[in-house]
Specification:
There is one protein chain. β9 and β10 form a beta hairpin. The chain is about 40% helix and about 20% strand. By secondary structure, the chain is of the alpha+beta class. The radius of gyration is 18 Å and the shape is globular. The protein is built from 8 helices and 10 strands. It has a single domain, classed as L,D-transpeptidase catalytic domain-like (Beta Barrel). The N terminus and C terminus are likely disordered. An 8-stranded mixed sheet has the order 3-2-1-8-4-5-6-7. It has a two-stranded antiparallel ribbon with strand order 9-10.
Length: about 260
């Protein structure tokens, strides 16, 4: 997948950058890297105009990314107040993939994960231009996946190659990475990314059920993801997410809980 020595060095560097710096100091540290400065210079005004067209503050209070493997699309949603509904700002093409529809369960299975994750650290010197680490394996993956080696090193990144990752070209990652820097620097506690096998509308789920009718366990997993998908489609507010002891996701809407994600 990736040279393990390089990955280890990147992990040490990027974890220190992402976890030890917050607010403006986080932005300042990111600014030291030439590719981040290039992303800002090329994309800051582009993003400002996109947000203005949606009548949203820039940078936003919070963002949400939603990836759809079958359609090869990554949606960017944002809000200027956590209590407000999110607005769709942009849709990017996922330009390469590996594996098949279905979750990632072990090292080397070539799968792109499916589920509810965070972008938990920034890599400004990626082998794939810029990259944002996806928090696989999450609590559900650790229950349902391999207990010996579930795999890891899953990223949203540039370029157009993938073994388990989500590539959106160098041009696309410049935009998403710089927005993520600004959103985190402005105080966002989380940068969520949701990864689905397909758009889990009723029609989309029926199509999956027809194609995978001999895999009831997989359909049960997707039906669980669909609950979270449907809640967001209804409210345009991300639900709070917990993981039960059996590895299934449990969802509470912001309206029900009276709090944010």
């Amino acid at each position: 997948m990736k040279n393990p020595v390089i990955v280890s060095l990147v992990l040490l560097l990027s974890s220190a950058v992402a976890l030890s710096k917050t607010g403006n100091s986080f932005r300042d540290v990111q600014w030291k890297y030439p590719r981040v400065r290039t992303a800002s210079q090329e994309k800051n005004e582009v993003l400002r105009q996109k947000f203005a067209a949606k009548q949203l503050a820039y940078p936003p209070k919070a963002i949400l990314l939603r990836a759809f493997k079958k359609e090869g699309q990554l949606e960017l949603w944002a809000t200027d107040a956590e209590k407000n509904p999110y607005t769709l700002v942009e849709t990017y093409s996922i330009c390469a993939t590996s594996g098949s529809l279905g979750p990632k369960r072990q090292f080397g299975d070539m799968q792109v994960p499916e589920g509810f994750y965070q972008l938990d650290w920034f890599n400004p010197q990626s082998n794939f231009y810029l990259s944002l680490h996806i928090s696989y394996p999450n609590a559900a993956d650790r229950i349902l996946g391999s207990h010996q080696n579930p795999g890891g090193d899953i990223f949203l990144h540039g370029n157009c190659a993938s073994i388990g990752c989500i590539p959106i070209t160098d041009d696309g990652i410049k935009e998403v990475y710089w927005l993520a820097v600004l959103t985190k620097a402005a105080g966002a506690r989380e940068l969520p990314i949701e990864i689905f096998p397909a758009r889990l509308t009723d029609k989309g789920y029926r199509a999956l059920a027809m194609d995978h009718r001999s895999q009831p366990e997989l359909l049960g997993f997707w039906n669980n993801l669909k609950t979270g998908f449907d809640l967001f489609e209804k409210t345009h507010r991300p639900p709070q997410i917990r993981v039960a002891g059996d590895g299934t996701y449990e969802f509470v809407t912001q309206i029900d809980s009276g709090s944010g994600r």
